[in-house]
Structure formats: C-alpha cells, structure tokens
Design goal:
145 residues; Protein-Tyrosine Phosphatase, Chain A; 5-stranded mixed β-sheet; 14% strand; globular; alpha/beta; 5 strands
Length: 145
C-alpha cells in the first residue's frame, strides 16, 4: 500500500485491504474515509466489511462515496465536514487516490490559497492544475457568502 501525504492531517491511497489496517494504525492514522462506491469493488472490499474491521482496529470510519456522475457540492461539503469532525490524521481511499485528492482540493478551496492546494496535491503525485478555474470559482463563491 502506498500512502500519499497531502497535508499533515490528510493522506490518500488506493483501495485499502483489511490486511493493511495494522500498517495504517502503525503509521499514526486515526480515521479513514472511503470515497469509493461499492459498485467498483468485490464483496470482500465493500464498505461494510472494511468499516467493521477498521472500527475493530480502533480507527474512525466514514464514507463519502462518489463517481464522476455523482460528484457535486453535497459530496464536497460532506468531505469538508468529515475533515473537521474526524480525528486526525485522516487517510482517504478510492481506486487510486486521485478522487480523494480532488475532493480534498475542493473541500479546501477558499480556506487555503489555490496555489498551495495545487502544490500540495502535485507533491503527493496528483496533477490537478486543470481544476484551477473551478477551485478559484468555488473559493470566490465561498468568500462572497
């Protein structure tokens, strides 16, 4: 399992397995967020199975699943809420970590400068510069409220 650190409080990875949980605990993570829908996984990797094992390992677990057709402000707001409420550091997982990096970027838009968001995700291995216009628009929208 490869963990990509985006900030001191948030990292992302590809699909996790129950066998990864001891390493995740040993790495100091306190919470896990699943951003991968069950429809993308076999039964042994579906949310409920991993949730039970995660909680048994002493970690918090939340789901905020989405795909390209279900990504929107409700998912962004939910991720932002989880990042405030859950014990840190948080590990989010999906297919590759990219989806988790994108939702973090949008959750942080307007709270962190766009350049800093893009630098953090790029340093973690995720090139999101194509999202700059949308991140800046969201940051302006949030500032206007």
């Amino acid at each position: 399992m490869i963990i990509n650190k985006i900030s001191s409080e948030y990292s992302v990875s590809a699909q996790i397995y129950a066998d990864d949980l001891p390493d995740i605990v040993a790495a100091g993570f306190k919470s896990i967020i699943c951003n991968r829908p069950d429809t993308e996984n076999p039964i042994n990797l579906q949310i409920e199975a991993l949730k039970l094992r995660t909680i048994a390992a002493g970690l918090e677990f939340a789901e905020n699943v989405f795909g390209p057709s279900t990504f929107g402000m409700d998912k962004i707001d939910r991720q932002a809420q989880l990042l405030v409420e859950m014990s840190r550091p948080v590990l989010a997982y999906c297919t590759s970590g990219n989806r988790c990096s994108i939702i973090w970027a949008f959750a942080k838009a307007g709270m962190i400068e766009t350049n800093a968001i893009l630098e953090a995700t790029e340093a973690a291995g995720f090139q999101l510069s194509h999202l700059r216009p949308q991140l800046e628009a969201l940051a302006l929208s949030r500032a206007a409220k």
